[in-house]
């Protein structure tokens, strides 16, 4: 009540201040409020204005009149008070600032002024002059948020598989707050950290947990919630943890009122006032039942938000902690009750598969349908005609059933369990008794029917049916009656005799067919012959497929005629029957009316026969709009169309084209069926009024005014249109076009302006408004054709006084107008209108006596003209015939430019400027001069343009260009013309295309001769752009500038002045600017970049691409019969191959061009042009050579080579025509002749001979100059391998085929290539190589024969067998399931059984890479084979079928060591200083128990000793004598093969008998092994460097090298070189610190799992190309080791790259890198000082400053 009273007071106060009760003091306009904004949390002002109840709020009031001003700008009044709710002093706001349109103020807290929250209050402003304004609902106080509980909320999401099964769950924690006023929350903070709002609903607020906050239930947190209006609440509270969980539901789909069980834990500890929510609904406590700590049941309430498919389930404990199951429960409405009303058909085979339609109330496709208790398949809703409001139809497929007979049909609701059953509703028939249709032929026919159709199937006539049948009256049904039919009584179960009737009929789309006969052979399929019924096509004239259904209705009766059983069967052929319309043959009888305006839009009736829906109608080549088509029973057709617009006049053919038309039929042409006449229009009339006595000269503006010709006594005269005002016929003086040309019916016929005189009369015309009508005489035979009437367009006024003209002074003036004239006469008036030749002059003044008028003449044409004065008041008019003469005087010509401004004799120039006099009638026009010589062929195009030809000035120099008008007014060009005497003599023979759009941009080709570099092209006086002169000077390409419509000239001017103008000589077309009808647009070019050598197919997308047509409108086609599309240009270069796809798509082969972006242009045949600026980017090709196979060529030539790389140019052909050449190959600058570019990645060639061996440069050069080089080596090989055979010569595209290559001169180090793919060599002998084929490319290599190359690596000998191997796709899919036994001896020879599937005769078996022996394919699933020998360990077992399909059983067979392996690493070495002892060493051998040592002499083996150690000292030997020893490993199963090694004892002079001590204190360098490490201690040497070469094979198993350097060599400047097979190190002794007894460098090659782990941990962009080496540097003092962090000076290292790791990578991008750091204080980024790549040796070297783990990386 208080609020209402406040509003009433405010309103009364405002009304008391409004102007109705105002004194003069309130005369100014009142203030006005348009909007109020309040300060938000984010610092912005926003509307609606709201604020917290307990704080001040800044508001912004916008409007007008808040400040008023007087005329001098002084303030007269200003807002002085702002109130809230009512104009009470206690409710006054603090004003912060005021201007004319804005007030800033502060609203006080609601509590301080007695106001309440959530009530909109009025804001009132009061101005100092007493006026006020108010806005209702201006400001609202809002309650602050209030926090009561804070706890965690676990969001649980169940993860389901594709079948809906729960396979996992995810959980995420949020913070959940309970309280009030959680609306418009803008900021939530936990201990000062911001949390994001997830959801808010007034009483519940859910947020994220801030990133830096870790929730501890025992801690206290400061929680602050602030709304966007800055109202907030802060609470110190614990955040309670969630001690309960939800793990699942008893069901996930329920209806309202269902009871569901929630599974979880912690339900017993939820507290007394826990809550459960489903969606946003709080479940009543009475509907919740906690059954145990892990189960509770709840009753499902109706969802509040029905737009959500799935609802959350929240369980909230008493402390507010919550478990939320996200999107878990789908609540569906309670389904409606359903019924079964009908089942069709109600019989089918026990094998199932019968499609059955069930009709009933409220049926749905989610229902379960059962036949005899067995669920049907594929329940689908279908639409049927004639169903009642709630009836629905479903279609199901019957399931198989165990026996024949009637069964119940049951429909079950899967949600509610509601069930409806129809007893004995479906009859299962035995398969052999089921009627079924197998096929049908033909499957189409005409709509008229009577197509003979044969259906094949079974049981049309059953075996127990009589041989004869009876027809119904129209032969659409046949009936078989068996009067002695035995059946099982469904009641008693006894077999009894009765009668069976089988009625058969066939329907086509529901229409019964006439049955011809049924043929039943003794065995096999029966045939049913019918005639298709006639149909009415829907829609008419279109193909209509229909179902063909054979129905058999069976009725069984007892002997009394009672029906015992009834059922029906239905079956359809696999395909539908398609009704086709009869072929059309349209005829036009008449066209009415047969004339009309070329504007189109006239309704025309065409009568004829057999005109069908979808017909198209053409008037000439223009498509009419079909409005209606009526057809009669006699095939008569009445077609209503709207005539299309036409640019032509006269007769055109009328053509109807039915939809089924082809080149022979389906259309009809009615010759000269329609006549187009003009469509005149009137846009304005000047003057549009006149005297009732006539005499007015008026000008009518419009279009399509037709002037014909009449002939009287052989004299031609123009026949002007009939012009009438009402019934008054006017005298037409002239008709002109928009350019001022007189239309006389000879050259021109159509005008846009008519000048006509209203006949004078002594009998006044009736006063009033009249229609103006124009009728053209362009109808048939010169009759009235086009006409137009402008209603009420002219007013005849009641003339009271007639003006008169006595004289005009001056009576002459220039045609450009502007002459000030004085007209003397009488009865003029203020506002009198003056015209000269019908054109309004500008009246300056009319004298006070109305006897003189001063006016300025308008522009006119030469000659004497009528001067007219018209009084607007009453239409009075005065005419003075020949009152003013337009003459060419007082011109002021100016020349702005001359184009071109240089050239020689014959140059066509354009002179641009103004006020050039044009030749009109017999008067002369302007003349143009160069110097004092008149230009040849001068023609004044218009007052701004003159063209002329430069005469021979004989001498080069600068000459003035001037223009002289007939009145001698002269203009001189601002720049002189540079006349040149050229050497060149260019000639233009053609310009292609010779027309283009007025907008410019057309790419043209100018052909001729003697065009020079720097030539310029001019078209119509405008300079062309993008001019490119061909190197041979015979062509120019250019882009046309914009121009005016019509024909113009093309001029080429060479730099020396040589010129030619095309279009001025006889037979030359010049260039024609056209306004095209088409407007092609390019939207996309795809791809939009490619090589400068062209040849790439691109697709151009856009609109309005048109097929080219000739002048008769016929479609132009290429030699293949394809439509010719638009021309396409890339820059200036025309594409040679363009394929028109459709209106918006072209396929184009790019032409060659220079690098960079170019404009792509499409030019239609009518000149319509569209382009995409920068639409295609030409990229200079950058071919790369990655590999040349083989890498060495025979200097005598003939080596077959393959270049592997990318971006090679593939030649482009159009059929057999070469459009673009491919890449060329050069070796040392000499072109290779025998070259085949296979694709962009491979080139094959025959290497030519050279004079000398050595490195040569191989170069691939693309047609655009893109070049790639590669170093190859020519050699004189000592080997000359040959390939005799390859077995097998074909294999799987997936590779892995075991292949034997027979030939000669193969060497141990050999590589084999299949084209560019390197094979894996298994074994090699001089005449045999065994390999596993590499995989091919499935996209291009299947069924392709590849060349096979054998390359001896050492000397470069190679041989290639062309097409030696074919990759194929395999068909079989063999599979191995077991191998018995699956272990065996490393010696092989054991029989195994391989079981599996799809083994084929001729299959081969491999154990690892070795082929098994005695392979017998016992069956598809069993193979017997004998194992080959193989080293110990697990191997894959492979079965390869004859089609090269492999089955692999990984690790399927284990080879067990029997006798030991051969020992490795066996070597013998002398002992310096001991001449009678040799030391024998070897590596540990797998399977060995001990070792036997023999002395070998002349092939005799003498046993020395046996040992289980890995070294042995042989003593009592002779000095300086070579000894050979043999070693073998032995175990309980026998010995291994022998290995041998030799060495020579020390010389006697060096002997220090029995003084050998191993270690660092020896004076000589010592080498020893310990635990697989090689230990070197440097000793004295007279050499300048220590060379430690460990590349021999005896060191191949060494992975660790230890170099000890005694400190006594600290100041020795010797170099140390260490060589291993894949690693080298070099340093000077001065590079070491030597701060202990000795320095030690340890080099360890990392292998095995440690290597693999390191590789795995590397970042993804790093690839290891070598082994990893751990380098350690230490000082040794008193036996203790201390690490150095770096070397004193940088030391050199070299690492070999592994080919299998390098692959196709470019080794030049490899480098040595530190992988990890030995000590953390080595530094964050140790670098390799420099590195060098040797691509021939596959090594990378560099200098390192610190120890650490290093490798070659990419």
TrEMBL record:
- Pfam families named among the record's database cross-references: fn3, TIG
Query: SMART domains annotated for this entry?
Result: FN3, IPT
Q: Which domain of life is it from?
A: Bacteria
| Record-linked CDD domains | FN3, IPT
Report domain Fibronectin type-III positions.
1462-1549
- Output the SUPFAM superfamilies linked to this UniProt entry: E set domains, Fibronectin type III
This protein's UniProt keywords: Signal
Q: Does the keyword Signal apply?
A: yes
UniProt keyword Lipid metabolism, yes or no: no
Record protein name field? Fibronectin type-III domain-containing protein
């Amino acid at each position: 009540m208080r609020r209402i009273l406040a509003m009433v007071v405010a309103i009364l106060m405002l009304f008391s201040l409004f102007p109705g009760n105002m004194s003069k003091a309130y005369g100014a306009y009142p203030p006005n409020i348009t909007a109020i904004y309040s300060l938000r949390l984010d610092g912005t002002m926003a509307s609606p204005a709201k604020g917290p109840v307990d704080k001040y709020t800044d508001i912004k009031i916008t409007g007008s009149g808040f400040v008023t001003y007087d005329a001098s700008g002084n303030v007269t009044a200003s807002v002085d008070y702002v109130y809230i709710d009512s104009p009470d002093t206690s409710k006054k706001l603090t004003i912060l600032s005021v201007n004319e349109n804005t007030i800033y103020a502060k609203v006080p807290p609601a509590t301080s002024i007695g106001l309440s929250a959530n009530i909109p209050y009025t804001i009132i402003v009061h101005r100092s002059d007493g006026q006020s304004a108010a806005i209702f609902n201006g400001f609202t106080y809002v309650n602050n948020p209030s926090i009561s509980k804070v706890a965690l909320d676990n969001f649980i999401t169940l993860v389901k598989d594709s079948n809906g099964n729960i396979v996992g769950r995810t959980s995420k924690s949020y913070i959940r707050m309970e309280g009030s006023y959680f609306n418009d929350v803008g900021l939530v903070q936990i201990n000062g950290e911001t949390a994001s709002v997830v959801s808010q609903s007034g009483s519940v607020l859910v947020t994220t947990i801030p990133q830096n906050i870790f929730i501890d239930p025992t801690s206290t947190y400061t929680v602050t919630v602030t709304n966007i209006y800055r109202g907030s609440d802060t609470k110190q509270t614990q955040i309670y943890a969630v001690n309960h969980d939800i793990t699942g539901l008893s069901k996930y789909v329920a209806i309202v009122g269902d009871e569901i069980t929630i599974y979880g834990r912690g339900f017993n500890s939820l507290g007394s006032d826990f809550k459960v929510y489903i969606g946003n609904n709080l479940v009543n406590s009475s509907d919740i039942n906690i059954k145990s700590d892990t189960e509770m049941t709840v009753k499902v309430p109706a969802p509040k938000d029905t737009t959500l498919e799935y609802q959350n389930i929240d369980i909230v404990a008493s402390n507010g902690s919550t478990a939320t199951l996200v999107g878990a429960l789908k609540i569906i409405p309670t389904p409606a009750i359903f019924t079964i009303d009908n089942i069709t058909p109600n019989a089918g085979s026990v094998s199932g598969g019968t499609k059955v339609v069930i009709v009933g109330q409220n049926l749905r496709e989610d229902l379960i349908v059962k036949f005899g208790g067995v669920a049907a398949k594929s329940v689908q809703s279908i639409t049927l005609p004639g169903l009642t409001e709630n009836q629905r139809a479903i279609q199901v497929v019957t399931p198989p059933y165990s026996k024949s007979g009637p069964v119940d049909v049951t429909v079950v609701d899967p949600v509610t369990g509601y069930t409806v059953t129809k007893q004995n509703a479906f009859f299962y028939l035995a398969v052999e008794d089921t009627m079924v249709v197998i096929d049908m032929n033909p499957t189409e026919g005409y709509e008229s029917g009577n197509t003979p159709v044969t259906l094949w199937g079974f049981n049309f006539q059953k075996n127990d049916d009589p041989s004869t049948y009876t027809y119904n009256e129209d032969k659409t049904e046949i009936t078989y009656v068996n009067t002695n039919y035995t059946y099982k009584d469904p009641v008693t179960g006894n077999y009894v005799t009765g009668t069976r009737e089988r009625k058969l009929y066939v329907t086509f789309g529901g229409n019964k067919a006439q049955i011809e006969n049924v043929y039943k052979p003794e065995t096999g399929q029966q045939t049913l012959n019918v005639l298709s019924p006639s149909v009415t096509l829907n829609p008419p004239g279109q193909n209509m497929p229909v179902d063909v259904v054979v129905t058999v209705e069976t009725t069984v009766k007892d002997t009394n005629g009672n029906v015992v059983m009834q059922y029906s069967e239905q079956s359809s052929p696999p395909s539908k029957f398609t009704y086709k319309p009869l072929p059309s043959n349209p005829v036009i009888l008449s066209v009415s009316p047969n004339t009309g305006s070329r504007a189109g839009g006239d309704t025309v009736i065409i009568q004829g026969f057999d005109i069908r829906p979808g017909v198209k109608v053409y008037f000439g080549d223009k498509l009419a709009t079909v409005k209606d088509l009526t057809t009669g029973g006699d095939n008569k057709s009445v077609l209503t169309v709207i005539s299309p617009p036409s640019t032509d006049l006269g007769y055109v053919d009328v053509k109807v084209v039915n939809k089924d038309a082809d080149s022979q039929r389906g259309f009809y042409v009615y010759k000269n069926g329609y006549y187009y006449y003009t469509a005149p229009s009137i846009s304005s009339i000047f003057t549009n009024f006149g005297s009732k006595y006539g005499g007015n000269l008026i000008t009518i503006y419009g279009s399509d005014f037709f002037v014909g010709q009449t002939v009287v006594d052989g004299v031609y005269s123009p026949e002007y249109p009939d012009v009438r005002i009402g019934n008054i016929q006017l005298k037409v003086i002239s008709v002109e076009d928009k350019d001022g040309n007189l239309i006389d019916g000879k050259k021109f016929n159509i005008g846009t302006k008519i000048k006509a005189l209203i006949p004078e009369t002594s009998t006044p015309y009736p006063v009033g408004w009249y229609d103006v009508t124009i009728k053209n005489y362009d109808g048939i035979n010169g009759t009235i054709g086009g006409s137009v009437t402008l209603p009420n367009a002219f007013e005849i006024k009641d003339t009271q006084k007639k003006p008169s003209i006595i004289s005009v002074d001056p009576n002459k003036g220039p045609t450009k107008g502007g002459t000030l004239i004085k007209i003397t006469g009488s009865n003029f008036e203020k506002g009198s209108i003056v015209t000269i030749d019908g054109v309004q002059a500008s009246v300056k003044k009319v004298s006070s006596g109305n006897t003189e008028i001063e006016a300025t003449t308008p522009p006119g044409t030469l000659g004497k003209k009528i001067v007219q004065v018209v009084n607007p008041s009453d239409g009075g008019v005065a005419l003075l015939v020949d009152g003013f003469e337009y003459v060419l005087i007082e011109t002021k010509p100016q020349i702005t430019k001359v184009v071109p401004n240089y050239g020689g004799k014959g140059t066509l120039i354009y002179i641009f400027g103004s006020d050039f006099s044009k030749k009109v009638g017999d008067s002369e026009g302007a003349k143009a001069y160069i110097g004092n010589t008149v230009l040849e062929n001068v023609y004044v195009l218009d007052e701004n343009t003159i063209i002329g030809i430069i005469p021979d000035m004989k001498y080069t120099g600068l000459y003035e260009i001037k223009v002289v008008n007939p009145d001698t007014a002269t203009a001189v060009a601002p720049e002189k013309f540079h006349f040149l005497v050229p050497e060149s003599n260019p000639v233009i023979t053609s310009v292609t295309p010779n027309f283009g759009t007025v907008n410019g941009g057309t790419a043209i080709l100018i052909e001729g001769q003697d065009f020079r570099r720097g030539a310029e092209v001019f078209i119509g006086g405008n300079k062309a752009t993008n001019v490119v002169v061909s190197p041979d000077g015979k062509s120019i390409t250019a882009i046309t500038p914009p121009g005016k419509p019509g024909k113009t000239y093309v001029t080429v001017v060479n730099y020396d002045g040589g010129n030619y103008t095309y279009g001025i000589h006889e037979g030359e077309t010049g260039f024609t600017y056209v306004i095209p009808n088409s407007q092609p647009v390019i939207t996309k070019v795809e791809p939009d970049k490619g090589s400068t050598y062209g040849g790439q197919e691109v697709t151009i997308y856009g609109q309005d691409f048109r097929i080219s047509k000739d002048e008769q409108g016929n479609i132009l086609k290429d030699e293949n019969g394809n439509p010719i599309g638009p021309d396409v240009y890339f820059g200036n270069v025309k594409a040679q191959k363009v394929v028109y796809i459709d209106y918006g798509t072209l396929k184009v082969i790019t032409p060659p061009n220079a690098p960079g972006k170019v404009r792509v242009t499409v030019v239609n045949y009518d000149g319509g042009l569209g382009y995409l600026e920068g639409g295609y980017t030409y990229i200079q090709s950058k071919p790369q050579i990655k590999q040349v196979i083989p890498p060495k060529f025979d200097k005598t030539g003939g080596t077959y080579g393959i270049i592997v790389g990318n971006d090679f140019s593939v030649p482009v052909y159009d059929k057999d025509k070469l459009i673009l050449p491919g890449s060329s190959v050069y070796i040392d600058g000499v072109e290779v002749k025998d070259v085949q570019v296979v694709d962009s990645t491979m080139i094959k060639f025959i290497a030519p001979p050279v004079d000398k061996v050595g490195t040569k440069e191989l170069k691939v050069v693309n047609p655009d100059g893109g070049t790639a080089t590669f170093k190859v080596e020519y050699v004189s090989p000592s080997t000359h391998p040959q390939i005799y055979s390859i077995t097998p010569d074909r294999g799987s595209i997936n590779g892995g085929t075991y292949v034997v290559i027979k030939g000669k001169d193969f060497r141990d180090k050999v590589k084999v290539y299949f084209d560019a793919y390197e094979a894996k060599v298994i074994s090699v002998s001089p005449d045999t190589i065994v390999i596993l084929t590499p995989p091919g490319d499935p996209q291009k290599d299947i069924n392709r024969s590849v060349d096979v190359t054998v390359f001896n690596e050492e000397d470069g000998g190679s041989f290639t067998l062309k097409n030696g191997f074919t990759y194929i796709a395999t068909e079989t899919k063999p599979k191995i399931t077991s191998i018995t036994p699956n272990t065996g001896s490393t010696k092989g020879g054991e029989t195994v059984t391989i079981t599996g599937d799809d083994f084929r005769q001729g299959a081969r078996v491999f154990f690892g890479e070795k082929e098994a022996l005695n392979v017998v394919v016992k069956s598809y699933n069993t193979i017997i084979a004998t194992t080959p020998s193989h080293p110990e360990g697990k191997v894959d077992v492979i079965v390869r079928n004859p089609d090269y399909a492999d089955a692999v059983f990984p690790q399927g067979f284990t080879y067990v060591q029997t006798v030991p392996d051969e020992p490795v690493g066996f070597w013998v070495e002398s002992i310096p200083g001991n001449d009678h002892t040799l030391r024998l060493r070897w590596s540990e051998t797998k399977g060995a128990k001990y070792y036997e040592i023999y002395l070998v002499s002349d092939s005799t083996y003498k046993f020395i000793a046996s040992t289980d150690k890995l070294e042995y000292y042989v003593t009592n030997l002779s000095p300086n004598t070579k000894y050979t020893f043999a070693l073998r490993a032995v175990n309980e199963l026998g010995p291994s093969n022998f290995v041998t090694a030799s060495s020579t004892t020390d010389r006697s002079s060096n002997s220090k008998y029995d003084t050998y001590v191993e270690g660092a204190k020896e004076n000589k360098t010592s080498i020893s092994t310990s635990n697989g490490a090689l230990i070197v201690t440097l000793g004295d040497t007279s050499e300048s460097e220590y060379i430690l070469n460990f590349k021999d094979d005896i060191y191949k198993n060494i992975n660790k090298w230890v170099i000890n350097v005694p400190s006594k060599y600290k100041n020795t400047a010797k170099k140390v070189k260490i060589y291993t097979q894949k690693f080298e190190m070099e340093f000077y002794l001065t590079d070491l610190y030597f701060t202990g007894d000795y320095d030690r460098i340890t080099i360890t090659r990392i292998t095995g799992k440690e290597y693999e782990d390191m590789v795995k941990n590397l970042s993804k962009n790093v690839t290891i190309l070598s082994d990893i080496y751990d380098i350690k540097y230490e000082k040794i003092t008193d036996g203790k080791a201390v690490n150095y962090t770096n070397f004193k000076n940088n030391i050199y290292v070299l690492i070999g790259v592994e080919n299998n790791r390098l692959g196709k990578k470019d080794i030049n991008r490899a480098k040595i890198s530190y992988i990890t750091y030995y000590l953390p204080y080595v530094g964050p980024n140790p670098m390799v000082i420099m590195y060098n790549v040797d691509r021939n040796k596959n090594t990378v070297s560099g200098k390192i400053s610190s120890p650490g783990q290093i490798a070659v990386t990419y």
